[in-house]
Amino acid sequence: DKQSRPGIAYLASRKTFYDDREWEESRKQEVIERCREPFAELCLKFRSEEKASSLVQSYFSSPLVSLYFLISESAVEEFREIFRKASWDSAIRPYLRGPWPPYSFVC
Asked: Residue 86's pLDDT band (boundaries 50, 70, 90)?
């Protein structure tokens, strides 16, 4: 019985906590990949970044993730057209900004 053995109850709760985090991380990676895939042929480099501030997390019910696509200047209009025509999952609220200089890809 877990209640009579608090150490076991504690370890079980930690296992549940880490299992949930692992599931959330794998789900986030799946969503990122689904967002990246339509642009794979245009993309020279790709990077993602999760916004972890408590203000952002309290405003959004799911993680806010920025996706950065390095594309050639000649591919900008094609990229925008693919973005406009993409079928987005109901959990995804995409915003397109740019083009910007490639700051996110400089070491």
From this structure: confident
